[in-house]
Amino acid sequence: MTRLSLSSAILAALATCNWAISEDARLLHDDSECSAEDGCTLVALQRGAVKRTHDEEAEKPRSDRPTKSFTSSYRRPKMIADSPASKFIVNKDCEKPPCSGQVHIQLGGPGEMVVVFASQPESVAEPLVRFGKSAESLSSSAKGTTFTYSQLMYWNHQLFDPVIAGGREMSTEEAAKLMSTDTWAYDKRTGWKYPSYRVIGPQQVEERMGWYKNPGERYDSPAIHTVVLTGLEPGVEYTYQVDNDGRKFSFKMPQEGQHYPYKVGLVGDIGQTPVSNSSFHLLQGLKPELVLLTGDLSYADGYYPRWDSYGIMAEPLNARVPVMSCPGNHEYASAEAFKSYNARYPMPYAQSGSVDPNYWSRDIGPMHVVALNSYAASGPDSFQFNWLKKDLEAFNRKRTPWLVVMMHAPFYNSNLGHLGEATVMMGDLEELFFKHGVNVVLAGHVHSYERTWPVYKNETTVCAPVYINIGDGGNREGAYAKWLPGEHGALEPTWSAFRQGAFGMAELELSNETHAQFVWKRNACFDNGEVDFHPENCSTSGDNSKNALKHDDISWIVRSAEACPNQA
Ligand SMILES: [Fe+2]
Ligand SMILES: [Fe+2]
């Protein structure tokens, strides 16, 4: 088995030309000496400098050596700027640019819908969206802004880090497997391969191990256009069309204030597998006013073309229904740093007095929705805590009787996956939730479904929030099926009402100001490494929950202003 040594990694990192590196770490440029074929070897790594020798020449006393330093055996990797790795595709049906695609909408301020779409850089000079109440006559238009960004493909770090950290080296076969996406960037139903579909062999691994100097290792985003449609009337259907795209999409502007029944789709940890597709398709079928997505969207994980393929996958739902989200760890880790997420999925943070795009609030129909960031400080001195406190003190129960909070990492979770990860944030915020009578707390992160009884500080009590984990949207990491009771005598908590390690999505229908019906539906199971799309009778291998065989969960969430002053 070929091994990728640290030396080869360092060699690969010196990407732009033949560099000679002297013992005292000064870089000397020399094309004349040893070539890759003549036996130069790299022998040591000292204080960041690469010391290399050329046969016995290197053993001679310093005074006897040639004055020129040696060139490295390193050969610059093949430039792969034209490879699909660094290219975005804005629209899978685009045969001849200019095209736009990845169209999606989310709520802005009152009466506003924010349209985001992507195009080739040169295609749209000043982004424009035409819209109107009639599909035949798009009589209004709005202009917007354009943004692009560049980022280094993160897989470099995944290859290097184990070596630097003293861990075992990664084989080229393992690296190739890591860099390939052929097992999941593929729609089995239609046979269509997502733009991020790649098969990498061992030979290509080393060719691709450049770093920031290599344009082929950089991702340049498409032009991302953001256009805010204003003055929209609640409950009215609008049709719109973006620049350079022949398609028209329609959406219904969600109702504002107390309109019942009010239907909301819920999902988390989506990814872009056939199950993800299925979850979005089911959500679209619900015809909800909007969808709340509890983070972990594309699973790009630093391989940024996946944000484009996610945008294409999400378009059928997200161009027609506003999807409102909070960020997950997959928007943050692997050098993501929220950059792609914030560029593409703007939430109404400024309108709600937040100084961070990753936590926001908005009155939506009869709900006041608060989205939090599990990966920002939440202590009493933090921006997030103080913004939340102010927001909860100010919202109007008369206008929005239902208070819904969403975040990524769950406070209450009895799955062994990610158990206790939100303990610090829970300590910071749970009292605030209870004091202000939060009705429902949505989360994801744990790739399974769980609903609690109303619970506060681990005790069930009627005036506390119901916690719902819906991280079962269908991403490539599979379903988490191992539940408490676990090792060391940990018991199944009494607050856990229903749990299952499968894939699914949910619907929250607010019937009036006191009752809401919540329905979770399974859409697939994960059986011995394969997805089973028979939701009526499938089960996930090893799921030790007592609800493992139930295909749905229906419950009522009751808000009692009389019994619970905190909810009045
Ligand atoms: Fe997560
Ligand atoms: Fe996740």
UniProtKB/TrEMBL annotation:
UniProtKB keywords: Glycoprotein, Hydrolase, Signal
SUPFAM superfamilies: Metallo-dependent phosphatases, Purple acid phosphatase, N-terminal domain
Record organism: Symbiodinium microadriaticum (Dinoflagellate)
Calcineurin-like phosphoesterase domain: residues covered: 263-449
Domain Purple acid phosphatase N-terminal residue range list: 102-251
Reactions catalysed: a phosphate monoester + H2O = an alcohol + phosphate
Protein known as: Purple acid phosphatase
Signal peptide annotation: 1-20
EC code: 3.1.3.2
Class of the enzyme per the UniProt entry, highest EC level: hydrolase
MF terms in GO: acid phosphatase activity; metal ion binding
